[in-house]
């Protein structure tokens, strides 16, 4: 029985693809959850630091929840300080942003952590999109960079692919024939910019996905 009404995994690898129009609801929920740093006044903002599909759970009502906050950092707006947990854990290497792999992230700047989360969110969108059924065609489930690194890549292997070679997961041409995936492909690419400051904000992503779902041609 799923605990607390939660059911996993977020992107089931079972036979059969997700409906193409099933992308926006999941993506919307994930991006809304990723906006955890936009809290009402007085509450601390949070960046996850280990965002990946396995850390997103789907509730029985199909809404999503982000779990495993063991690496999350809190931002105290009143004092403009970042509370970083004191543990030896590191995030999942496959989902690390370029600046994290290069150890160039500004640990004193809260926006740095938000931007690294957005990079990982773009990879999650790619995982969802692969499972979307377009005209009876969909891809098997794969992790990001599955065709570029081993199943358990090292920091060095990810750094070479992401930072030196500047590789990103491939976007199939056929996604451009589906309005939802066409829009989401653009979002993914703008989440993956090498320059962290150029990436989309989670709020911009949320609005884009919400608008996509609300469009007359894509009733969801």
From TrEMBL:
GO terms for cellular component: plasma membrane; receptor complex. It is found in: Membrane. Residues 1-212 form the Protein kinase domain. The keyword Transferase applies. Keywords: ATP-binding, Kinase, Membrane, Nucleotide-binding, Receptor, Serine/threonine-protein kinase, Signal, Transferase, Transmembrane, Transmembrane helix. It is an enzyme of class 2 (transferase). It is a single-pass type I membrane protein. One of its GO terms (biological process) is cellular response to growth factor stimulus. SMART domains: S_TKc (SM00220). It comes from the Eukaryota. Its EC number is 2.7.11.30. One of its GO terms (molecular function) is transmembrane receptor protein serine/threonine kinase activity. Belongs to the protein kinase superfamily. TKL Ser/Thr protein kinase family. TGFB receptor subfamily. PANTHER family: RECEPTOR PROTEIN SERINE_THREONINE KINASE, TRANSFORMING GROWTH FACTOR-BETA RECEPTOR TYPE I AND II. This is receptor protein serine/threonine kinase. It comes from Timema californicum (California timema).
């Amino acid at each position: 029985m799923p605990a607390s009404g939660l059911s996993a995994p977020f992107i089931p690898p079972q036979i059969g693809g997700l409906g193409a129009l099933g992308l926006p609801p999941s993506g919307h929920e994930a991006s809304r959850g990723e906006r955890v740093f936009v809290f009402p006044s007085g509450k601390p903002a949070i960046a996850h630091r280990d965002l990946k599909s396995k850390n997103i759970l789907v509730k029985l009502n199909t809404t999503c929840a982000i779990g495993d906050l063991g690496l999350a950092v809190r931002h105290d707006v009143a004092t403009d300080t970042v509370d970083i947990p004191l543990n030896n854990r590191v995030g999942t290497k496959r989902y690390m942003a370029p600046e994290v792999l290069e150890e160039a992230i500004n640990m004193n700047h809260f926006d740095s952590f938000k931007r690294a989360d957005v990079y990982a969110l773009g990879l999650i969108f790619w995982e969802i999109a692969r499972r979307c059924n377009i005209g009876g065609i969909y891809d098997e489930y794969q992790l990001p960079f599955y065709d570029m690194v081993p199943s358990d890549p090292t920091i060095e292997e990810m750094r070479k692919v992401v930072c030196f070679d500047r590789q990103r997961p491939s976007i199939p041409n056929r996604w451009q024939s589906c309005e939802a995936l066409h829009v989401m492909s653009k979002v993914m690419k703008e989440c993956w910019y090498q320059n962290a400051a150029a990436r989309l904000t989670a709020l911009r992503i949320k609005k884009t996905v919400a608008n996509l779902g609300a469009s007359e041609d894509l009733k969801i």
